[in-house]
Structures are given as structure tokens and as C-alpha cells.
TrEMBL record:
Major subcellular location class: membrane
UniProt name for this protein: ABC transporter ATP-binding protein
Annotated source species: Luedemannella helvata
Keyword Metal-binding: no
InterPro entries in the record: AAA+_ATPase, ABC1_TM_sf, ABC_transporter-like_ATP-bd, P-loop_NTPase, Type_1_exporter
Keyword Cytoplasm carried by entry: no
Amino acid sequence: MKRYVALWLKLLRLTWQLFPGQTAALLVLRLLMVGVTAATALAMRAVVNAVAEGDPAGAVRASAVTALTLGLNAYALGAEHNVLFLLVERVGLKHVRAQIDRDIAGLEGLDHLERTDFLDRVTVVRGAAWGLTYGMWNAVDTIFAALRLVVMLVLLGVVNPWLLLLLAFAAAPLWFERRGRKAIVQAELDTAERMRLQRHLFELATEARTNKEIRTAGVGPALARRQEQIWQEMAEVWLRARVRSGAWRFAGWSLFTLGFAGGMGLVAADAAGGAGSVGDVVLAIMVAVTMRESVETTVSRTATVADAGRLIEPYLWLQEYVAADRGRAKGDRAAPDRLRDGITFDHVSFTYPGRDEPALDDVSVHLPAGTVVALVGEYGSGKTTLVKLLLKFYRPDEGTIRVDGVDLAAIDTEQWRRNVSAAFQDFGRFHTAFAETIGLGDLEHLTDTQRIEAAIRSADAEELVRRLPDGLDTELGREQGGVDLSEGQWQKTALARASMRERPLLFVLDEPTASLDAPSEHAVFAGYMARARGLADRAGAIVVVVSHRFSTVAGADLILVLANGRLAETGTHEELLALDGRYAELYNIQATAYARA
Ligand SMILES: Nc1ncnc2c1ncn2[C@@H]1O[C@H](COP(=O)(O)OP(=O)(O)OP(=O)(O)O)[C@@H](O)[C@H]1O
């Protein structure tokens, strides 16, 4: 709870700093509403007493005050709502949301996107900005609701001090409600896994990618049945929890009602016996009604505040994660202007968090400057992981990667990434103008048409541009009213994007042609081999190509064969064939398969 309060104070401070006038207005309005409620009750007592005492002037005066306080209350309520939503939207969406985006974008590694337990939290946090800010005001509101409760009790105490005992009865619904909520929270926890599964099944059934297979295999109805069964199971758990929570609520409000019925009886008996006035009875009734509202507001606000944990916990986790990430040295050495010696892996091992088997196991190899290096190996052998370490998405658990003798960890991450280019098998589909989707590969040259056209030529994508309705200005993505591209066309845009930088030190092509047909693949590779020589001349660049198709990498200067995370063989195509080991075996299998096809 201490952490929550600290976060709310931080958000309140931020709101105050950004919009001091509106924040002060909101707090004053809330305080005003507490005073106005009490004033209304007192004014109504005065009206009734004046009538009972036969004082028409006093009755009119008191009625006027009552009308004024009721009017003020209505005005304050409306104004309070408007100011609240204005503040929450401006602070939540504009500042908290922007900060969350900056925090996520500033993370060095990929853990937060690749680990499902982290990704779940990141997803929650992304949508949490509004809720977090609103939650803070809910917490503030709880304080005001409690204050109103105390003021009401004091008023009752003035009528009869015994009525102060009603505090205990007012607390009952709060306590019972909490017990009830526990049952609901437990039910949500108990069904969380089924909820995830249900969501997954829904996505399977509705996503275009998976739907083709699902329709062909005819498993749609089975999926729907499975989903229905999961809903049924979840509904049963929730129903039981709701019944239990309802019983707790009922018990709490019954106690409250009993206490107040007793209190009212006491006041009425006092008035009838001459110890109190009729106005006191009206005051007590008024206070009781307002108190019920106050308790209800406090209860619902407390519940919302407790619920806020669902947003706050992942948010605080992200803050700690970001702080730890910032605390890690990101390197302060400049990236070299050109590679002279190359990149050396020295006994590098890496295991993904949560996995037992290393994805890379004691890899030692030198990638000479100015060469094309191919990574081959079966599925899951560690090729992409090696690339990820080169791009500093992860750091080796053991061993060192050196760039011209300098530890890669010591080189400033942003600088290093500004000096590399990469196209991945799971390429991005940026929904924007075609030229921009390419230009994003080098932000400094986002609108440099000449460069964009050169990048398009490198990726052999000129034909693709010619077919677009508005050429380079064509908007991509159907959601934005633009055109959609085929897998192969998207892949070519990713390749072109990766070709924007003219002087990278490292150029990675991780299965960049998996979605292309054989002639396109051939053309692309021939083009990139030629480009690699140019890059080697310009900056001693190393071009790393990951591919399953051995024929495409035969021309590489160095081929690394990975097997189960270990470096099984290294050499040129001819050397590896002569070695007659794993590479030769896999190469011959593929060659035979292609010859047959
Ligand atoms: N984000 C991740 N979290 C946990 N394990 C991972 C992750 N990414 C990869 N792995 C595991 O690490 C090992 C190496 O994976 P990697 O993606 O490097 O192989 P690859 O050779 O590139 O495979 P492919 O040819 O299928 O792309 C595999 O066992 C894989 O399951």
C-alpha cells in the first residue's frame, strides 16, 4: 500500500505542477461539497424548527439557505465532474501515457517483448495511463468521502452523543464489502488461465493468418465448442463468487440499516419526550440518508482503489524494470568509424531467461571485416540468437563479443545501432506512406527520395513500386484506408528499409527472403552480394546472412554451421564440402531435393 500511496502522491504532484489552477479548483470543489452537504442538513433542521415554533420569517430565511446549498451542491457536482475528466485526460493521456511510451522505447533489450509474462504486463501498462490517473483521483475522493462521513457523524453527535456509536455501523459495510471483493478477486485469479486460453482460441478463430488453416482442417466448430465450454466453466466460478460476495454485502448493509434504525428510534424518542426538536429528527434522517450515500461512495471508491492494483502493479514493475535497465551500463565508447579487424566471439554463451538449455553454447569465432558471413543450421539452432547478441538485444551470459578488440558491451548501444542495418524474418509492417515506410530505416534521411529510391533498387523492389497506385506516396495498410501488400511485398519493403543506411558497419539479413519466390530470392541475393562488396570498401562492413537455403549462401566468405547452439563447423562452401561433415550432409540433402523438384 505504501508504494501505491507514493505513486498517487507522485501523480498528484505531477498534476499540480502541470495544471495548478485546475487541481486547486478540483480540491476546493470537493471540500465545498462536504461543507454544502452538512449545511443543507442544518438548514433543513432550521426550516422545520422555525415552522414548529411558528416563526414564518425564520422558516423563509432557512428555506432560502436550503435552496442555496442544494443549488450549490448541484453546481459543484457538475463542475467537479468536468474538471476531473479534463484533468485525467490531459495528465493521463498526454503525460503519463507519453512517459510510458518513452520508457518502453528506451529499453535496451527485447525481454519485455519476448517473455510472455513480461509482455502481459507491458500490454496492461500500455493501456493504463488513463486508469492510473483516474485511480489517483479516486484515492483522493476516498479521503473526501471519509471526511464527509466524519462531518455527518459530528452532526449526529450534536443531536445525541450516543449516535456517535453509529460510526461502528457505518464501518460494517466497508469491512464486509472487502470480504466480498476477495471472493471476486479470487475467482478472477482462478479463471485467469482459462481466460487467456479463451482469448487465444478467439484469436485463432478470427485472425486471417490462422483462419486459412482452421477452415481447411475444418476445426472451426471444435474450437467454438471448446470456447463455449471454457466460458461455461468460467461463468460457474464467477457466479459462485458473485453469490458469496453478494451475501457479504447483504450482511454489511443489514448491520448498517439495523444500527441506523436504532439511532433514528433514539432521536424520535428524544423529540417525543421533549428532549429534542422535530428539526433534530429531520436532521438525523437527512444525515442518515447522506451517510448511506457517503458509505456507499467510500465503499465503491475503496473497491476501485483496491482494483487499481491491477494497473499499478504492472506499472510499478515497469518502473523498476526501466530503472534497472537504466542502471545497467550501456557503454560509453564510440562505435568505430570503420571496421578494421572485425567482430570476435570469445566463448560466448547465452540462455534465454526461463529456459534451461542454452541458445548459444560456448561460441568462439572471428568474423573478419569486409566479409559476407552466412549462418546456417536447423530450426532452433541459435542463428537468430547470435544476431540478437550482435545487435545488443541481449547480452551474453558468458564470454565476450569484441568489435575491433573493444567489448561490444562497452560501446554505446544507441551509437552501435545507428551503425548497423538489419532485416528480419519477422519483419515490420509499418502502415504509412510507402516512401516513409522505407525512409524509417534511417530517420535522418526519412524524406530523402534519392536514398529511398536507391534502397528500393537494392531490394529489387522497383517493380513493386511501379504497381502501387500512387507510387512512393501510396498509403499502406487497409485499416488506414491504404493498400495491403502480400507477404513477399512486405518483405521487400523491409529489405529496402534495411538498405537505407549507406555506411553500416554491420548489415544483417536474417532470413530476409523467406517470403519471396525463387527468382526474386536469387535476384535479391545477387544484389546484396554486390552491395556487400561496396559496404566492405566503404566501412569494412560485415554482412551477416541467415538462411535455411544453402544454395543462397554458397558464395559467402565464411559459413558458420550451428547445431544446438554450438558452432559445429566453419569455413567456405568448398572447405565445408571437402570436410564432408554436417554442412555437406545438409547441403547435399537440399541439393537432391531441389534437383528432384
Ligand atoms: N525469446 C525467446 N525466449 C526463450 N527461448 C527462445 C527465444 N527465442 C529463441 N528461443 C530458443 O532459443 C533456441 C535458439 O533459437 P533461435 O531463434 O536463435 O534459432 P534459429 O536457429 O534462428 O531458428 P529458426 O531457424 O527457426 O529461426 C531455440 O531453442 C528457441 O526455442
